Amino acid sequence: MKRDNKDVSYADVIVDISHESVDRPFTYRIPDALRGKLETGMSVLIPFGRGDKLRQGYVTAFRDSISFEESKVKEIADIAETDTAVDAILVRLAGWIRQQYGSTMIAALKTVLPAKQKKQNLEKKQICRRISGEEAKALADRCAEKRRPAMARLLLALAGQERLPMELVRKKLHISPSTINSLEKQGAISVETLRIYRNPVKDSAGAAAEKNTFGKNRPVLSRDQQKIVESVLQDYDRGVRKTYLIHGITGSGKTEVYMNLIEGCLARGRQAIVLIPEIALTYQTVVRFMRRFGDRVSVLHSGLSAGEKYDQCERAKNGDIDVIIGPRSALFTPFARVGLIIIDEEHEPSYKSETMPKYHARETAVYLASLHRASVVLGSATPSLESYYRAKQGEYGFFYLGERLTGNVLPQVYPVDLRRELREGNRSIFSRRLQELMEDRLEKGQQIMLFLNRRGLAGFVSCRNCGHVMKCPHCSVSLSEHKNGKLVCHYCGYEEPAVKVCPVCSSRYILGFKAGTEAVEEKLHQMYPGARVLRMDGDTTKKKDSYEKILSAFADGEADILLGTQMIVKGHDFPAVTLVGILAADMSLFAGDYRAAERTFQLLTQAAGRAGRGDMPGEVVIQTYQPEHYSIVHASSQDYEGFYEEEILYREIGLYPPAAHMLAVLVTGKEQEAAKNLAKELADMARRREERSRLSVLGPGEAFLSKLNDSYRYIFYMKSGDEKVLAKLRDEMEDHIQTLQNRSEQVQFDVDPIHGY
Ligand code: ADP
Ligand code: ZN
Ligand code: ZN
């Protein structure tokens, strides 16, 4: 298959994407007149089916040659009129995703066109009165006289009400179809069929939306909030479309700004997409949108049934709703008139897809907005380095909201040096300061949150005495301890044997960092037998709704301590929490990838922001072996700018995104040697370019998860200042992979990776 469209002779075309033929593109010849003019995603007219009727299709790929008889190939008739239909936009988006992130066009199409599976429409019948209420009453009397009690019953019920649901009439009033029939014949009633949509917003949010406080309880915007809303809408009205970043501390009123912007967008006859990191954790936000926008808003996420998803897409297409809220996939809602895309908590890693194509919702949103001529608004208390960098370069508009609108102050933060605790004889996971403050809160009956920011891949080795962390001499990321005891670099594959004594201070307290929430919970029970502890982690939240249950139990004061992983730093506001303890800030600091410091700063800042949300001031204890590390220093003083300045320097020196681009290639396979060899072959391909293309190649090496589901995993990385160099190389590798016979290995590409391997 070819990427370059200039000299190719054939194109694959998908004929009708509204059916299930997405998996079956057909090959067509490109006539001379169209050579070089076609692009993937473009809409073309092609002869198809019996009688070769001209139909519209979408180009998905190009080819040099075909494996069947030339005479059997039909020719593309023409480029179709550019239509602005929703599907065309989504197909173009798929084309862009394919090109940007690498995958097949089919996989990209399946990503953007998720709810193709047609589901039966749901219908509801109603009985409608065709005569006046008075007439119905009179008729009911006559029916009663004629011993027609069922007819009388129905007419009486309808006297006070113009319509009744069929179900109620049949089941509650016990009226037979023949009775309904004969009243219908008399012209007294009629039966009507309504199309109803499956409504995914049933429980609390639905109830809230019904009580719909439309326009009520609406705060007057602060001057800073007002300025953002006005600037964005003024730009919009002047025809200026941009991406804006709102850096606003938690509680500074970002959500309120989003809602006002959406109102402005709706007033201009356009629709809005609101992305949130995860529905379960941001339910309160969803409810707020329901209250403000009533039934003009819906949600779209993976927890919905196929029927519910299908109906939301139908409603979006029909223009029945104007606002959609959901995680990254909600970006592909089939709206025809998008005017605004909002991404809340834009720094969250969940915006990056973990399956092919590994697209980032933020970048994809910016491209989608360009297709719709829409604006994009990003918001975060701890913006991603990418967005802040772009805002600084003037590529994004920028706003800052620095004050909590509820009047309460930011909490007092105490960094605690765990090395000193150990030297002074305290071997507990709780520092003396934290113990003291916990006892104080338990006594006062105030709530505590304890946070263990464990990352899936944390496996670093550090010295408990001096804080020294074992790092890769080539990549300045921490080495990870593998099962065999060896220390391995995730990026370049560098290895060294396990260490027994600290190379800096010769202490024997140099070990892998492992501590689980379960162990901490046990400790809490030992130390404070009377305290009620709730634990929230991967294990306790497997079941549906369990997040919500744990969080609301804590909100209702059913526990004194909420202990959990990073999932507890989002979601609910807990006004009674006055103490937040971060047990081991270092856990994410040395997660072995270039984003570790950024993630740590974000988690610490967000966790600290949980304290003192109510009337009582809050305190935060950050326990660490590295109190001097810049991400901990700046998180303690809640200084984003200070953190950014140091972090961007590290990225610039190390050639990491956003200062440069990075492409990860993961090769997996059941046979270890074959997977390893393919990774090596591909990396060598890149190495041959190294000098000419200002490119650096790292690896390959075993991935941190070196074996998963019986597959061996090898990874290598490439870095370059020029995105195009990496894209070209990726295309060449994809082409090369296509030519390999009997290959069973899988190859995945990841541009500017966020998740570890
Ligand atoms: P963020 O999204 O930045 O965390 P929110 O929009 O949720 O901030 O606002 C935090 C709190 O402040 C909410 O309770 C919200 O109702 C309230 N709030 C927002 N804007 C105003 C305002 N202009 N005046 C008074 N209260 C406000
Ligand atoms: Zn040491
Ligand atoms: Zn390395």
Q: How would the blueprint of this fold be written?
A:
Elements lengths: L9 E5 L11 E4 L13 E6 L4 E11 L14 E2 L6 H16 L3 H8 L9 E8 L3 H13 L3 H11 L3 E3 H6 L5 H9 L3 E8 L7 H7 L12 H15 L5 E6 L5 H14 L3 E5 L7 H11 L3 E3 L6 H13 L4 E4 L11 E7 L16 H12 L2 E6 L4 H8 L4 E5 L10 E6 H6 L8 H13 L2 E5 L9 E3 L16 E2 L5 E2 L6 E2 L13 E3 L4 H11 L5 E4 L9 H10 L5 E4 L12 E6 L3 H4 L6 H13 L10 E6 L5 H7 L3 H15 L6 E9 L2 H16 L7 E14 L2 E10 L2 H17 L6 E6 L6
Parallel strand pairs: 9-14, 9-15, 10-12, 10-13, 11-12, 13-14, 16-26, 17-24, 17-25, 23-24, 25-26
Antiparallel strand pairs: 1-2, 1-4, 3-4, 3-5, 6-7, 6-8, 18-22, 19-20, 20-21, 27-29, 27-30, 28-29
Helix pairs in contact: 1-2, 1-12, 3-4, 7-10, 8-9, 19-20, 20-21
The structure holds adenosine-5'-diphosphate and zinc ion (ZN) (2 copies).
